[in-house]
Amino acid sequence: MAGELILIIEDNENNLKLVRDVLQFNGYQTAEAMTAEDGLILARSQHPALILLDIQLPGMDGFAALRQLRADPITKSTRVMAVTASAMEQDRQKILEAGFDGYMTKPINVKKFTEEIRTVLASDRGM
Q1: 3-state SS assignment for residue 5
Q2: CB under 8 Å to 25, separation ≥6 — which residues?
Q3: How many CA atoms lie within 13 A of 3 on its CB side?
Q4: Measured in whole angstroms, how far is the alpha carbon of residue 3 from the centre of its chain?
Q5: How far is CA 110 from CA 20, 28, 113, 115, in A?
Q6: Structural domain boundaries of the chain?
Q7: Is the distance from CB of 31 to CB of 48 less than 8 angstroms?
Q8: Beta-strand relationship, 5-9 and 29-33
């Protein structure tokens, strides 16, 4: 269901703009951060329905950010989808085993991206 708030944590301005534009076109609200550290602050204060988290970020990477999100009582049940340029099957497996709720490779395929967003939002993450 559109309208939910989705937090985008992405350090590349072009990728951030594309994801934001696609989400807003599909009726979602967005919040944005260009570092994991800023994203963690927004996640705690904004309570997004979904976090789109780049894996390769300056400073703290996406795996470390996910560990912090899962360790925090406020964000532990928030859905988190990895959005990454790492496209090998072993990368996908490592990402999903780390506890991400979904996985999308860059550059994004807009149709597949919106389908995956809907799938992850519809999934049960109640912990």
Answers
A1: strand
A2: none
A3: 1
A4: 16
A5: 12, 14, 5, 9
A6: 5-120
A7: yes
A8: parallel
In the predicted structure, residue 34 carries a pLDDT above the cut 50: yes
> Up-side HSE of residue 68: CA atoms within 13 Å toward CB?
15
Say if CB 79 and CB 121 are below 8 A apart: yes
Residue 93: how many CB atoms within 10 A of its CB? 11
**Residues 60-117: pLDDT tens digits?**
999 999 999 999 999 999 999 999 887 677 888 899 999 999 999 988 999 999 999 9
Question: What tokens appear for 115 in the block?
Answer: 């389908």
Q: φ, ψ for residue 21 (rounded to 5)?
A: -60, -45
Q: What is the CATH number of domain 5-120?
A: 3.40.50.2300
Of 102, 42, 99, 103, which is closest to residue 67 (Cα–Cα)? 99
Helix, strand or coil, per DSSP, at residue 39:
helix
- Report in angstroms the alpha-carbon separations of 93 from 14, 66, 101, 102: 27, 15, 12, 11
DSSP E strands, the chain: 5-9, 29-33, 50-54, 79-84, 102-105
